[in-house]
């Protein structure tokens, strides 16, 4: 069976600079599968998600490679078609629920707008669906929440709303970019469970960006380790925790005191390992430039 | 009940502002040199005549006495009698106010349309030559004051390419059916589009001169605030839903970006009304500003006071409207 999302040799770079932000990234995800993307801050985890969803910052663009969703090559689509295709098949669960909702609009249209404007649902149907979704994310009084403004809701509530909004159109692919980092610890666990629950129920393919190997062990089937915009290791989760292939991954894992502890996050990695992986990225860069 | 308190507080501040303006103007115009009686009598009038008229208008009394007389009059709705025009002040002032209001509102509409369109175009094509061109235009619009724009427009469209009228409010040869002074409004209600068009041709240049600097301010601020908003997470999130750039700008970014601009428009609109004084003079437009200049030249103290009170009232009302609109558009204040 061919993968639902395939990223092949994807490179992205800042305009006017030779420096790549993503360096020949390749991975694939099957329907119903969750891929963890781990790596230190600035490694390019969010950049991969943005490239897939077509929301790269204006200064950065894709310079080579392919992104295939459901067999469709995004690069070959007209921009307007690509936009609508992504809107209908994929969704983003953002990192910071405090800034990801429009402060001047009520919750209801923020959940239903994609259904009504992009997928052509009637307002009434979309409303019913929104109620259903808010129930699914365990919000007790959906009626009230739909009429509220974002500032009237807590961070955890807002993230639930954003998750509901992400799953509104039954997306086949969800990109979750550190969806619990901005929440406090007790809420983090609930939200994590919720995402997992919805992902399983809808058999969604998911990219799960995180700093946290403990979370990876709970949520993901496979993971990719990123350093400097380059994937240094692609593994299944059980294989990875048995013994990572790459020295950098090993160091990452060793630096996590107890990877089963979901509160633990990545600790600084040994200098020599960093130097080695940085040298590897540079060597790969040299080769890549040579090959062009 | 918070709302009621806010309104009461607002009314209190408004009254203080008005009383303050009245007091300041009353005393200032009596301290500056110049004698209204001397202005209205022919040269060589006798000392006796001057004294008689001075007494007639109560100008021989002390300033405090005069103020008391004026104030009690005001509370009975009597703002005194114009010395130069020999008519009650309030009907005179209210007769001219509509002309100025129509001019100022027309200018505001032009400024919002031009400034808004420029800001939106600038954001739509941000970081391109189009945006640079808009920045340059904003700079030019801002660095030339309204009365110079007036002169430039007069030369361009009044003299070189005479498409608009450069003087007056409406062509004197026309028969006017109007019962109010709101000519533009009434011409629309009466479906007299011939008159409406004539009024517009008179109003266009003074309104544009007033509008250009404000349009530049609106364009600059709104574009800046839109650009900042475009980077926010909720805007990015809406892009992933499949919306076009235009939709993202208009429905997601604009409603939030417009709030700071709105406050600024309120303040700038009061400046614009201040600008009508000179602009009306330049275009011989028969509004309140033009009357104000005559009143000052003639040292017509009661008339100046009346005009200032009306302007001050206008400014406080504008501020009130802006605050209310702001609260209405901003959900965080709506419930506070
Ligand atoms: N708008 C931008 N312009 C230029 N470079 C950028 C921009 N945004 C991000 N970058 C660069 O791209 C690289 C990858 O950033 P990215 O946001 O993907 O990191 P990340 O792995 O998600 O990190 P974090 O864990 O902190 O979220 C970083 O080196 C960053 O400096
Ligand atoms: Mg990130």
Query: What are the low-pLDDT stretches of chain B, counting only 5+ consecutive residues below 50?
Result: none
Give the tally of β-strands of chain A.
Answer: 10
| Structural class designation of chain A | alpha/beta
**Kindly, what is the distance between the CA atoms of the first and last residues of chain B, rounded to a whole number of angstroms?**
11 Å
**Gap from first CA to last CA of chain A:** 32 Å
Supply the helix-strand structural class of chain B.
Answer: mainly alpha
Count of helical regions of chain B: 14
Could you list some keywords that capture this structure?
heterodimer; A: 292 residues; alpha/beta; four-stranded antiparallel beta sheet; 11 helices; globular; B: 336 residues; mainly alpha; 14 helices; binds adenosine-5'-triphosphate; binds magnesium ion
Detailed description of the structure:
- Chain A: This is ATP-binding cassette domain-containing protein.
- Chain A: Belongs to the ABC transporter superfamily.
- Chain A: It is found in: Cell inner membrane.
- The complex is a heterodimer of chains A (292) and B (336).
- Helix content of chain A is 43%, strand content 22%.
- Chain A has helices at 45-53, 79-89, 107-118, 123-136, 142-146, 155-167, 185-202, 213-219, 237-242, 247-255, 271-291, and strands at 5-14, 20-29, 34-38, 60-69, 72-73, 90-93, 173-177, 205-209, 222-227, 230-236.
- Chain A has a six-stranded mixed sheet, sandwiched between helices.
- In chain A, α3 (107-118) crosses α4 (123-136) and α3 (107-118) packs parallel to α6.
- Chain B is mainly α and 336 residues long.
- The radius of gyration of chain B is 24 Å and the shape is globular.
- The termini of chain B are close together.
- The mean pLDDT of chain B is 91.
- The interface between A and B is medium-sized, with 31 and 23 residues.
- The complex binds adenosine-5'-triphosphate and magnesium ion.
- The site of magnesium ion has 3 residues of chain A, from α1.
């Amino acid at each position: 069976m061919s993968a639902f999302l395939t990223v092949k040799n994807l490179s992205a770079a800042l305009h006017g600079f030779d420096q790549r932000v993503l360096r020949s990234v390749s991975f694939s995800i099957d329907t119903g599968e969750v891929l963890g993307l781990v790596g230190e801050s600035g490694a390019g985890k969010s950049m991969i998600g943005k490239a897939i969803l077509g929301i790269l910052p204006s200064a950065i663009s894709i310079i080579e490679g392919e992104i295939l969703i459901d067999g469709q090559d995004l690069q070959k689509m007209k921009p307007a078609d690509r936009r609508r295709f992504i809107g209908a098949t994929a969704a983003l669960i953002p990192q910071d629920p405090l800034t990801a909702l429009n402060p001047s609009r009520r919750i209801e249209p923020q959940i239903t707008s994609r259904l009504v404007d992009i997928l052509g649902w009637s307002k009434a149907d979309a409303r019913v669906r929104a109620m259903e979704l808010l129930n699914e994310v365990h919000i007790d009084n959906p009626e009230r929440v739909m009429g509220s403004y974002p500032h009237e809701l807590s961070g955890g509530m807002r993230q639930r709303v954003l998750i509901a909004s992400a799953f509104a159109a039954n997306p086949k692919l969800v990109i979750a970019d550190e969806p619990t980092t901005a929440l406090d610890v007790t809420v983090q666990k609930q939200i994590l469970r919720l995402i997992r629950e919805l992902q399983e129920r809808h058999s969604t393919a998911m990219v799960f960006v995180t700093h946290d190997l403990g979370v990876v062990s709970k949520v993901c089937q496979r993971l990719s380790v990123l350093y400097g915009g380059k994937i240094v290791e692609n593994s299944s989760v059980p294989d990875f925790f048995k013994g990572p292939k790459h020295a950098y991954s090993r160091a990452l894992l060793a630096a996590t005191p107890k990877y089963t502890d979901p509160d633990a996050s990545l600790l600084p990695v040994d200098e020599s390992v960093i130097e080695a992986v940085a040298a590897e990225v540079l060597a790969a860069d040299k080769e890549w430039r040579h090959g062009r | 009940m918070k709302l009621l308190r806010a309104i009461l507080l607002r009314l209190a501040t408004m009254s203080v502002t008005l009383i303050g303006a009245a007091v300041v103007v009353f005393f200032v115009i009596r301290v500056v040199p110049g004698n209204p009686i001397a202005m209205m009598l022919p040269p060589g009038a006798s000392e006796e005549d001057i004294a008689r008229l001075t007494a007639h208008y109560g100008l021989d009394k002390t300033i405090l006495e005069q103020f008391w007389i004026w104030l009690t009059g005001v509370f009975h709705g009597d703002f005194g009698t114009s010395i130069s025009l020999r008519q009650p002040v309030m009907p005179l002032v209210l007769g001219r106010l509509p002309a100025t209001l129509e001019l100022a509102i027309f200018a505001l509409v032009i400024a919002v349309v031009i400034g808004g369109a420029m800001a939106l175009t600038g954001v739509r094509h941000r970081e391109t030559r189009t945006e640079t061109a808009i920045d340059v235009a904003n700079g030019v619009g801002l660095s030339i004051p309204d009365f110079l724009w007036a002169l430039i427009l007069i030369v361009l469209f009044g003299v070189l390419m005479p498409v608009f009228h450069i003087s007056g409010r409406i062509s004197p040869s026309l028969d006017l059916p109007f019962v109010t002074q709101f000519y533009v409004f009434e011409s629309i209600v009466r479906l007299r589009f011939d008159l409406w068009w004539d009024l517009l041709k008179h109003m266009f240049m003074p309104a544009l001169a007033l509008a250009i600097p404000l349009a530049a301010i609106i364009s600059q601020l709104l574009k800046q605030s839109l650009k900042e908003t475009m980077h926010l997470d909720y805007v990015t999130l809406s892009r992933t839903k499949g919306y076009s750039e235009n939709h993202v700008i208009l429905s997601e970014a604009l409603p939030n970006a417009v709030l700071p601009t709105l406050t600024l428009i309120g303040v700038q609109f009061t400046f614009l009304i201040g600008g009508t004084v000179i602009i009306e003079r330049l275009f011989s437009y028969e509004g309140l500003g033009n009357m104000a200049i005559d009143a000052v030249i003639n040292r017509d103290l009661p008339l100046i006071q009346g005009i200032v009170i009306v302007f001050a009232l206008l400014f406080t009302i504008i501020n009130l409207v802006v605050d209310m609109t702001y609260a209405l558009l901003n959900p965080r204040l709506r419930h506070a």
